[in-house]
C-alpha cells in the first residue's frame, strides 16, 4: 500500500496548491464553511428542480426566467421561491391555485444541500481545489437521478459537460482518480481521468451492444387477433403509448435508436379513421410504412389503430444514457471508481428490486443506482477498494494493479 492515500493532499495540481494556500490563510476553521455550503447547496437544489422539470420536456432553463407552478403555470415571485423555506411555509401547495407541489421539490433542495455539506466537510481540509468540481458532480448526479427515475432518460448535455468538469478536476487535484495511479502532476491526473472515461464509456457500451444482439427484440403473439393503437399523451410529460392487447409500451422504450422499427402483422389498419391496406405494418419513430409501401409522417397522423395477430418490438438491455453517465463517473474517479460504481450500482438495483418489487414487468432505470454507486465510492468506497487490493497483494494478484 502507498505511504499516502490519494485522497490526501500532496499539491502538484494545476493551480490547486495556490488555492489551498489562499484558503489556509483565511481566518476561518474548515467547519465554519459548512453553513455557507448548506445554503449554497439548497440554492443550487432549487435550480436543479428547474433542470429536472424542464430539460426532459425540451424547455429552456432560462426562459421563462421565473419558476412557475406546474399546474396553473402562475409565475412564482422571488420572495415565495426561497429554497426549503417556501415549500414548508406554503405547506407544499401553490399560493395561486392551491394545487399540491410534490415533496420532490423540497427533497431535491435538501438532498443537494446535505451533499454539498458532506463534500465540504470531507474534502475542504484536503484540497480546496477539488471542492467545486465535486459540488458540480453532486448537482449533476442529483439531476440525472430524478430525471431518469421519472422519464427513463439521461440527457447527454449533462453527462458531456460533467465529463469535461471531471477532467478539469483531475488536473486541479491529481489525486482525484483514486488508485488509478499515484502520479501527482496535473497531466497525470487528466490522463487517469481520461482512462477512466474510456473504461466507463466503452466498457458499458460493449455491454449494451451485446445486450442488443441477445435481447434486442420482443415478440408478442396472440391466439386471437387483438386491437392495437397509438395512444396520444394526456399531458406534456407523458409519451405516446403503443397499446396492443393488454400491453402498453411508452414510445421512448421502443425507439432508442434511429434504426429501430416496430413491426406489426395486422388484419385491420386505420389511419385517421380511414381503413387502409392491412398486412405488415412498419412503425418508426418518425412515421409508418403500410403493407403496400405507402408512407405517412407521424406528425400527419392524428389517429392510428387496428387489429393485429402479432408484433415484434425493439428493446434495449440498457440505455445509452447509462453509458454516458458511467463515462462521466470515470472522468472524475478513474477506472477503479468505474468498476466500484458499477458493482455497487448492481447491488443497489438488486436490493431495490427485491425490497420494492420494482423492475418486475417494467423497465428499471439504472442511472440512479450508478449515481448512488459513485457517491458511495467518493464517501468511502475507495477504502474498500484499497483494502481489497491490499488483501490480494500477499497472494500476488493485487500487486499487478
UniProtKB/TrEMBL annotation:
Q: Which GO terms describe its molecular function?
A: aspartic-type endopeptidase activity
Q: Which residues cross the membrane?
A: 33-54, 102-124, 130-147, 152-174, 194-215, 325-354, 366-385
Q: Where in the cell is it found?
A: Cell membrane
Annotated Prepilin type IV endopeptidase peptidase domain ranges read 312-353
Keywords, A to Z, come to: Cell membrane, Membrane, Transmembrane, Transmembrane helix
Q: What protein am I looking at?
A: Prepilin peptidase
Question: What is its membrane topology?
Answer: Multi-pass membrane protein
Annotated organism of origin: Luteolibacter yonseiensis
Q: According to its UniProt record, which protein family does this protein belong to?
A: Belongs to the peptidase A24 family.
Sorted alphabetically, which InterPro entries does this protein's record hold? Prepilin_IV_endopep_pep, Prepilin_pept_A24_N, Prepilin_peptidase/N-MTase
Name the GO terms of the biological process aspect.
signal peptide processing
Q: Name one GO cellular component term.
A: plasma membrane
Q: Where is the Prepilin peptidase A24 N-terminal domain?
A: 39-123
